[in-house]
Amino acid sequence: MTAVALASVLALTATACGDDGSDGKPSAVSSRDGKITIPDDLKQRLKEHGIDIDKWKHGAWKNWNRDDWLREANDFVNPIIKGLWDSDRMRDADDPDRGVDDSDISGDQGVTDPTPQPVQARAVTPPYHTSAATSGKLLFDAPGGTMVCSATVVTDPAHPGKSNLVWTAGHCVHAGKKGGWYRNLAFVPSYNDQGRSAAELEGASRSEIAPYGVWWADAAKTSQQWISKGGETGGDGASYDFAVIHVTPEQGSGGKSLEETVGGALPVNFDAPAVSQVRSITASGYPAAAPYDGQRLYQCQDKPSRLSIEQSDPTMYRIGCTMTGGASGGGWVETGADGKPALVSNTSIGPVRSGWLAGPRLGEVAKSVYESVSKQFAGR
């Protein structure tokens, strides 16, 4: 209980104010020489709720710096800050660059297929809710600033027809081996549903940009492989670069789940089919790096090939596609033998100059991540 309370306080203040209160407002938690200090009045308020931070682990928190604490905390902490994601902040979010140089891909198992020809991304016809209701944007704050990825509403076995689960890339929720969990994660389904240009969105209301609301992550999980190996660039950890988040509406949804609100959710296929068995994959996302501006939804459709990053890791799917950063985390969908669409991967990496995208093949590790988030909210 104390651990969660302290982590919540730190997560809130990481966004709310400067480390030293330099914004002119009193800082709830300040940091001097990288160490955490907590004002006496805040300690007293916590004590009134039965939480004595000084007694917890004999006050060991005094020797930790804030970034280490947030990285080492086992629980993902993401308190809702109402109104934080206003229309300007959503529109101006940048992409977390995951561009790789082809020469960085050095762990080939001898099974990597030739580089696919680029497939020009096509703009999805608005309103997006009509043809791509499960797609949306994932917004978050990272050390480098306000960032954006893409994400997909997926089914929840614990709540059939009433899912609040969203699928994205691991690097869209956690920085990997040199960082921790990102802050203020929020999902916006059917972002900019009418497909307006950046110029047309100037001065647009929040409801125009987010017609189905802003949904905050109250749980997130990625693979331990991504946390241990994931890097800012290159292919480290890419074969396990996936994540599942559970969301809750910022303003309330009248009791409706995310799936009920948007009108659908995609099942996830964890029995990753071999490339030879897949006729076509469609990848969706909001590319934000040039020549795109992150405001519109795009898709690429191509027959996948194989990409091997490390000999010890599973091969990845790779398709030709001109989408750029910002499309990361977007769902890859295949029509199965039953004729129904299912999510089979997500955008993880692509080359510096675009032209192709690669995503992990989903197997037992991905299934365990998915099921653990589902079970966390089963019965609620």
TrEMBL record:
Residue ranges of the region described as Disordered: 87-127
Keywords: Signal
Entry annotated with the keyword rRNA-binding: no
Alphabetical list of InterPro entries matching this protein: Glutamyl_endopeptidase, Peptidase_S1_PA, Peptidase_S1_PA_chymotrypsin
Composition skew (Basic and acidic residues), residue ranges: 87-101
Record's protein name: Secreted protein
